[in-house]
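Objective 1b of the project was to move from sequence-level analysis to a structural picture of ligand recognition. The entry below was assembled by the postdoctoral researcher (A.K.) and checked by the PI before modelling. It contains the amino acid sequence of the target and the SMILES of the bound compound, pyridoxal-5'-phosphate.
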Amino acid sequence: MQNPDPEFVRFLKAYPTYQSTEALDQLRASEYARLDQDEHVYLDYTGGGLYAESQLRAHQQLLKENVYGNPHSSNPTSLAATELVEKARAYVLEFFHADPGEYLCIFTPNASGALKLVGESYPFPGGHYLLTFDNHNSVNGIREFATARGAEVTYVPVALPDMCVEAESLGEYLSRAQPGERNLFAYPAQSNFSGVQHSLEWIEQAHAVGWDVLLDAAAYVPTNQLDLGAVKPDFVPVSFYKMFGYPTGLGALIARKRALGKLHRPWFAGGTITVASVQGHKYYLADGAAAFEDGTLDYLNIPAVEIGLRHIAAIGYDLIHERVRCLTGWLLDELTGLKHSTGEPLVRLYGPTGSEGRGGAVTANFYNKDGQIIDHRDIEAAANRVNISLRTGCFCNPGAGEIALGISRVELDVCFTQPGHEQRLSVDDFRLCIDGKASGAVRVSVGLVTDFHDVQAFLSFARSLLQ
Ligand SMILES: Cc1ncc(COP(=O)(O)O)c(C=O)c1O
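Corresponding predicted holo structure:
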């Protein structure tokens, strides 16, 4: 064995299949060398993925060797750009095994842009918006469209310690669909807070009782194959930089044509219409994806999406997933075993403590030897000093945060109705208000080219906090 490190030996004994993912070590050395040159311990893959050097080269070559014009025309450079954009669009569907007869790919600035498209266009009046507590704010934000248009809004709770939804209670919530076809159920395939992977079986369960399903796949698809040939959510938002790091500023709404037909856009823009008239005060929306893509597409970067997806496809999700499973499992096993001299555990984890039914995001708070919480900002500052990039706060997922941190509705109502805070509340005001409680947590997330040394570096950082 090349690496005689006893910790590595212990790890391999617990997770022997890690060795079958060695190709990712070679890939890291050849394509992501900058990580090790600068001794970065990057543990924020749920925040953003990392790009391979070859992605940059392929994209740059394309731009260097060709002339591309604005696609909304029929001149040669415009047609060349259109061809590339449409090729990338088709490949997005192929990548997710989505039948082009059934699904459309709409390019958006990011997952939030995809979510806003659904929110602003869904026929909420008289309907119901059902969503899990565990959701990113860009899914929570849709409730404002729903409420403004008179729909009922209901949250399905998640429960500690695993932060999962109880199967029976979900069935009960789903039975509350309104008559008519204006019911939207939204949940994340993988939580960006706890890493929990909520069941994809809910999609058919919800369809069967009258819901359209919005599956937020932003945190899931970087390390898991979403197979839209096997499961059929109606709306799927993704951010491409989370999958392969480059380019930023592009995402997609992958939508079922049948469900897309229900949406009514609140405005029109350049590119979204066939005909619009000033004097006639009339416009006709374009067919398909174009109706949802406002203005000029990011036509020079969209080809880099295809390059990135092909990069992931060439590696294969099986390999990525297995590596992430092994490293996450080890991280969890070791973290949960760390105890102070007093016997107090160093961390309290939010989410499943085993590697099954979860992805590579591990969220916790740290405690001192007397069982008192260490502020997550202090943990981040200490991690920064040893070049570890992790993330702290609530990760734009306040529902999961409130459950994990035990912040009650009553406490929140008190904070939000304090004199002077009806309209404005800073994070510091909020912290002061929930005095004594943590307002956030620490998240480390592993991904495509994480290796054992990254995890080992984090664990030795964690051990350095033992008293
Ligand atoms: C589960 C989930 N949904 C949505 C988003 C929003 O993605 P973006 O900020 O790229 O729009 C994120 C980003 O962290 C996420 O993790």
